[in-house]
Design brief:
The complex is a heterodimer of chains A (about 220) and B (about 850).
Chain A lengths: L1 E12 L2 E13 L4 E5 L6 H8 L7 E6 L2 E2 L5 H11 E4 L11 H12 L6 H7 L15 H14 L4 E5 L7 H18 L2 E5 L3 H5 L3 E6 L2 E2 L1
Chain B lengths: L1 H48 L1 H5 L3 E5 L5 H10 L2 E12 L4 E10 L10 E3 L12 E4 L1 H6 L7 E4 L2 E11 L5 H6 L2 E5 L3 H4 L8 E7 L7 H14 L3 E4 H54 L4 H38 L13 H27 L22 H19 L3 H31 L7 H8 L8 H28 L11 E7 L3 H10 L3 E16 L2 E2 L7 H4 L2 E5 L7 E6 L18 E5 H7 L6 E6 L2 E13 L10 E3 L10 E7 L3 H14 L4 E4 H40 L1 H13 L4 H38 L8 H21 L2 H4 L3 H9 L1
Parallel strand pairs in B: 3-8, 5-7, 14-19, 16-18
Antiparallel strand pairs in B: 1-9, 1-10, 2-3, 2-6, 2-9, 4-7, 5-8, 6-7, 11-20, 11-21, 12-13, 12-14, 12-17, 12-20, 15-18, 16-19, 17-18
Classes of the chains: A alpha/beta (about 220), B alpha+beta (about 850).
Chain lengths: ~220, ~850
Amino acid sequence: MIVAESLEQTYLSGGRPLTVLRDITLAIAPQEFVAITGPSGSGKTTLLGLLAGLDRPTKGVVRLDGEDLGPLSEDACARLRAEKVGFVFQTFQLLPTLTALENVLVPLELLGRKRDGARELLERVGLGDRTHHYPAQLSGGEQQRVALARAFANGPKILFADEPTGSLDADTGRTIIDLLVEMNRRAGTTLVLVTHDPALAGLAGRVIRLAGGRLV
Amino acid sequence: MRFVLTMALRESRRSRRRLALYLSAVSLGVAALVAINSFSANVTAAVHGQARALLGADLELRSRQPFPDSIEAVLDSVSAARVTSFGSMVLAPRSGLTRLFEVRAVSGGFPYYGTIRTDPPNLWSELQSGRQVLVDPAVLVHIDAAVGDTVLIGDSRFTIAGVVTDAPGDVGLRTAIGPRVFLPAQYLGETNLLRFGSRAQYRAYVQFADGAALQPFLNSHNALFQRHRIRTETAAEEEEDTSQALGRLARYLGLVGLVALLLGGLGVGSAVGVFVREKLDGAALLRCLGASARTVLAIYVIQAVALGVLGAAAGVVLGLAVQMILPAIVGDFVPVKVSVAVHWPTVWAGLAIGAGTAAAFALLPLLRLKDVPPLRALRRETDGRTAGRPDGQILVIGVLLAGLVLVSIWQAPNVGIGFAFAGAVLLTTGVLWTAARLLMAAVRRWFPSRASYVIRQGVANLFRPENQTVPVTLAIGFGVFLVATLYVVQRNLVEQFSLDASPNRPNLVLFDIQVDQRDGVGEILRRRGAAGGGATPIVPARIARVNGEPAESLRNRWAVRREYRNTYRDTLADSEELVAGTWWNSSSGSLLPAPGSLPKISIEEEVAEELGAGVGDRITWNVQGVEIETQIASIRRVSWARFAPNFFVVFEPGVLERAPQTIVTLTRVDDATRRAELQRDIVLAYPNVSALDLTLVQRALDGLLSSVSLAVRFMALFSIGAGLVIMIGALAASRFQRLRESVLLKTMGATGRQVRQIMLTEYLAWGSLAALIGVLLAGVAGWALVTFLFDSTYRVPALELGGVWIAVCALTAIVGLANSREALRGTPLGVMRSLSD
């Protein structure tokens, strides 16, 4: 489902080049649950961005569901993401001007698809009675649950989660992870989870470790 | 103290550019004020320097009658120059065109001060030497003549010797609307134009070799002048009148500029509010580290004041530059040559007011920093409203209001207007703010939930947390409101005189027709197929007595002193309605007054009020030497805006038929060429008859109104400018938020086009909200002004207002998109990276 070949990523930081990722090659099969771990600053989030097509590597190739992302335009990448990818972020990233239900609907609306299933998704995460509330009126845990519902709204093939429990306390975090794993199993998506927490990583089928920008 | 200054400098590093943008909103207002006030000061100085040339003499005597012998004797003793002005038709035989102009018969010597420039040069001093005239350039244009051609004025022919290019005291606007023809006084009698009923202005100009002799001269002849209703004016008085008039004009224009400044202040307040929210954490941290509340406040206030001074300084420079173009905008109203110079008191005032405004408006939100609890550094949840209002807020609001009133009074022509202006600004701001809130609530309520996603998202973004939709809408809306109101009033006033619209209204007025010419004129009209209006008689008269009291004892009222032009009719005109008394009862069969009773008259209500007279009172008229006592039978309300011969006093039939009178006839000729030919025929046959082509009047009026409103609209543009600056500032304030949102959307699969559409929708919504408010309120304000101030009927220029609405929408969309370019480019992560750099 996801293939990376000899990925390298270098940025200019403060005027000097900074190589964040070196020679990354990996493959993730469909419906696999993979965790990417490593200490802070090891390049996990950068790798996630490259695999999801949110950024372009300085060197190397990324293939998503068989498609080479390199020659695709920004808009084409966006379309690909809209159809096949779901995201969960550390900081929830809900649109503040929309209600919970409207937030869940955004991926569908972007595709111009019919708005089916959003309400059920919210019920699945336990927020069926809060559909008309704005993010400001929801707690951190509740916002992340809305984000979860949103991630599955467009029926994605791949789900990327970047430290989904990073901003939550232990109990809430556990609830979220349980929900995530459960919904993932049900939907049969490929799940790529980035985390620095070894316990979370342990839930995955396979762990990819990064240190200093390289695979270890 | 040193710590405060150092921290102020460091703290401002990151946001300096943004804050500078906000304060440029103040700059525009300061620029407007400095420009107009500086210009006004320069004009006053110029008027003072050229005062004597404005009048052309040390003393001017004016009368509506030829000077009686006693006055002539006085004038002979001081050798005065004479100028007699009156309206007359001037015909150019070569082109066949004729038109009504102001003719000035000038005797030698005038002007004693200042030079009248001509083309070819130096002709003025030779005017008296032959049968020739000098004309204003517009004259040549109107009757299609050239220098060297012959013209017919009354019964005489003259050669056009040249053109007057510049005369001291000339106001450009005036000579364009009422161009003049100057002929030597010695030929005035020949023209045979000054007949019974002609309206002429007789002027005599005196120069005193010894300036000190002026006042004694006036003192010794004052009683004589008064008795013969002769008005006098000295150069000093002329200077004062002119300065005052121009000064007042400038002050009004300045008030418009003041609005721009106030809007700028609003912008500063709202933007600093956003700034404060970002700095709350930093302020809490400083408090944790041991700074006192006062110190924390001081750090930020200093930044605000410093940037306020900078903004005001930029405004001053801009204003001085704008001053250079002001002569082009208002030059037509100014009778002197103005040299542009820096007027330092205005500069200092602009600086002080600008900085003060910025500081005052910034202080209000900054007060919150004073009360930040140090605990906030540990736990974010203690943000949101601090308990109650920060103390000192009432004080600052009070200072703001007091400042508004003071500045308004400083700028306005007098204290009353200043208060009225301040009140009007507060009222308008309140109404606009309410309208903005209402509209926003309405949008929320009737949300376009069936529209496509991008539109819904765009509209929803108006309500994003910490949005500045209301301040931006208010600011832009205010500017639009000002400009649109002016436009609405102007259009309505012009339409009042739009005669071509109605096919049955007259478009040509013939007056000064002598009684024995009436039939002849009627014959010419018939021959030319002109739709004939009736012949309205005009009988000049003066009031000799009111209820037996001689007019002299009631001297101070203009209603008693003026010359009346009365008429007689048996019916009420369309433009009149009775408000008291009864019309003469023609049902009695006879149209003659009942024997034994006094002849009846009907008076217009405002004149009745002036005279203090009502139904039943008696007025004795002096009609060319014959006294006629009359009784007021009724009082009428006249609709003066209606185009018809309207009269203050109407006599019943059977009284004035044999009194000396002239005739006025209204007629209509649709085709412009035939109208010109008709006028030519009449002037050739009866040179003393004057014709007024109303389409030309309408055009002149339109031109005049355009000039006036151009000046005001120019100043109002500063307001719109301030509004746009505020909008840019608001965009900048939410920049980070917008970028994050657009990145998020792109991450979830939005194409660049979709993101752009969402933004476009948001900006268009912004702009259309602001424009809608401005235009709606302008419609209402225009209605109020036209109906109550100008006493006219109101029509909404819907098409033009719609145009304004579209223009503002487009403008906001362009400005908005221009400021959001970075959100649309590059990869999502790439954008995020560039932000954190």
